[in-house]
Specification:
mainly beta; 5-stranded antiparallel sheet; homohexamer; 6% helix; 33% strand; Jelly Rolls
Chain lengths: 174, 174, 174, 174, 174, 174
Amino acid sequence: AGDAGPINDFCVADLKSALLFNGLACKAPSMVTSDDFAFTGFRAAADTNNPLGIGIIPGFAGVNYPALNTQGLSLAKFNYAKGGLVPPHTHPRASEVITVLKGEVHVGFVDTAGKLFAAKLKTGDFFLFPVGLVHFQLNVGSGHAVTVSVLNAQNPGVQLMASALFGASPEIKD
Amino acid sequence: AGDAGPINDFCVADLKSALLFNGLACKAPSMVTSDDFAFTGFRAAADTNNPLGIGIIPGFAGVNYPALNTQGLSLAKFNYAKGGLVPPHTHPRASEVITVLKGEVHVGFVDTAGKLFAAKLKTGDFFLFPVGLVHFQLNVGSGHAVTVSVLNAQNPGVQLMASALFGASPEIKD
Amino acid sequence: AGDAGPINDFCVADLKSALLFNGLACKAPSMVTSDDFAFTGFRAAADTNNPLGIGIIPGFAGVNYPALNTQGLSLAKFNYAKGGLVPPHTHPRASEVITVLKGEVHVGFVDTAGKLFAAKLKTGDFFLFPVGLVHFQLNVGSGHAVTVSVLNAQNPGVQLMASALFGASPEIKD
Amino acid sequence: AGDAGPINDFCVADLKSALLFNGLACKAPSMVTSDDFAFTGFRAAADTNNPLGIGIIPGFAGVNYPALNTQGLSLAKFNYAKGGLVPPHTHPRASEVITVLKGEVHVGFVDTAGKLFAAKLKTGDFFLFPVGLVHFQLNVGSGHAVTVSVLNAQNPGVQLMASALFGASPEIKD
Amino acid sequence: AGDAGPINDFCVADLKSALLFNGLACKAPSMVTSDDFAFTGFRAAADTNNPLGIGIIPGFAGVNYPALNTQGLSLAKFNYAKGGLVPPHTHPRASEVITVLKGEVHVGFVDTAGKLFAAKLKTGDFFLFPVGLVHFQLNVGSGHAVTVSVLNAQNPGVQLMASALFGASPEIKD
Amino acid sequence: AGDAGPINDFCVADLKSALLFNGLACKAPSMVTSDDFAFTGFRAAADTNNPLGIGIIPGFAGVNYPALNTQGLSLAKFNYAKGGLVPPHTHPRASEVITVLKGEVHVGFVDTAGKLFAAKLKTGDFFLFPVGLVHFQLNVGSGHAVTVSVLNAQNPGVQLMASALFGASPEIKD
């Protein structure tokens, strides 16, 4: 909940602007249409043919859903192969609610006291990942699974723990 | 995006507390379990056997999902009979993203210049309703429909225009 | 109270800039003078010779009071003919305090539970309209009336209920 | 603009509660009436028979206008004898707009670069004092004067420079 | 920068209160003294006789520096044995500036693109760790080292990556 | 705590940009290096050969530490000759924590009730100056002294009381 509130009804991002402030430039309001607000990017299924068995489609102001600029919201859809894992990661700038659209998904987060809060979600269930805490998602059903997440910042950031710890560039040398 | 950020990892609402500040009292952290974060309230279907053909299930910190207290997020599920209408309303304290889980739903909002932004959404599509603006949802498919909304405040408020204008108690007398 | 706090002492809006971010560009500080901070736009009386019997003069950062840019405040003055009505409307992004400068004005708002809170104000009295809720003002005195409002956002927005519901463009078609 | 946004439509302060968090406890919503929102405290004129020739009536959530609790707004009315002076002071937690209801008032603030911005206001004029900066008001008209201020925080604080520098208790000893 | 701004000059935490809202209860203002604002907890050196060679002393509103309640600030002091390591961790709710009081310390963070930003700091140097990102500190000097950090939230939280990933309780089972 | 939260991991200020919004323009992320985050500006000692016996080095986003842009933090280092005084001043947009690196320093602030809170700090001690309140620092040790402050806004502003009251340009004329 740290994003500034919107000054205008909307400020649909002009993704062609090279100017960068703490947020994205707005398209001229007269150029904004209904299509800007309707997001169909989740009709597709993302490929899960990879070691983790995971496909991701974002719904971000700065990427493919510019109407979310200044609105303090962002989206993400996950496709999971059987056993597919979204490994432990954080979002440095948002809390997240996740819902299962298909399948059974084991989800959880670890709080700053090191306590794990986790559950097996069925279709339609939700779970909360508080801002900045390590969390993960694992397809524990017998087939494919799909989840959708909504986060309360327009650019929550994603930091995969394994990449941050073992894959940083340049490497972390102790 | 007006809710204060959270001071703690979580502050699961103690719904039995009678104390009211700008937010809800927290349960003792030691009493919080994984079940607090898992929300299964949307497994049910809400009855649509009413004049508007609409059933609503909230997912609110102060009602049935206390883990959302201090997290700046809230949920709502709508069941629609054929032709079911969520009539024009506002949320005074949050922006909203809505997604169609089943059916075809015509949604729209009116901006402060009086311009309508609307679209017919199919399953999996999203739409944005900016904070405080009048919006509506109408099932335009051939059968039942289901949508889920996420809002970026823990208590966004709902003001139905018809009720506010013609059903206030006591009545507005000009 | 959703506007970001100011980064500088002032950021007087450059109304000639075409750039749009979440807020308005600042004039060069060296070009700012005392005149920027003094607002005399309310010396005039707005014409009330119209069906509603209402004249409005704004005091907005983006219109005629650029010093309010980034300061989280905006103004509005209303002139009322006898019986003049500011019909039900909302401000999606600000709470408002209104005061009567002349005459007797009946004001009220409807909360999200559908309860009306209203009063007849005399000269010098104030009333609060919480953020985003439907409210109205009606001149119930025997002559002209004048009110001034202050809102806690630089661009609160105004949505007239009648226009949003029955006058949107294109029309809302159910 | 630093107050947290409101979680509820209103949270009218319960001035009898001894509990103190970052804000005031709310009265039970069922006990709230229209009278809570109507503020008539400025009908009176404050006595100006004192060395500075100034009388002040607050309109504060924690003092006499409890409906302002959580709404990010506060009020103050000043009566000025001829030559009456509100000496240099700051509000540590709010920006302020001031308007002259009667008379002619010279007002000004000093920015952090030491530059004075000042003007002689006539009835109906407004001036902005940005958050935290030293400002003052002086009745320069031929008779009594009245001003009203609105600030964008529920408890802006008032720090008189002369008192802070020369009247602190215990005394500042260098 | 997500903490709500303060409503009062200060709200020194009453650490004996069992009430929990989104923040801590205030002591009665009349009980607050100069000693509340002076923090001497860093005069001590924390023991570094442990596998990581690290000793930590907090300066937190909820622990040992209650004056920081509602002020959006917190402190931490680290003592390092030769080679002492503060292993990769995050603060979910604050950005941090760290300074070296003694010795030479290698510090760094990994951004969400997996890029490492790191430097060897000498006495008096500062480094920034943006909110929520993985970062670490390593004593690379020839003797003991000391650093002090200031964070812009009253309860930033600390999540050690190793503990979150491999030491959660109950264990994360994929 | 009034600065908006950051939208990105970092937005290192482009100090060559002439554009001014409510914050500073960001350098292209690809041009950002580790050196941007490491601040060595406090290795120097500021000259104290002046009437107040004070030297100041800032660590501000807009001056010499551009990585602090959007991060809600700023720094300042003070060198004090024997008896050196930082006279009463305010920061209109931030709370401050100050620490003594060398010597003995008497510090204090005056609250809005006119009460002085002060203490003699030794090396390593901290003190809190709440947002917007008048405060001062005085070297009371037998030799030179050094302090470092951290504030929770990127551009807190500094208003010296003596300058604001007696040195404004043009002069305040009552």
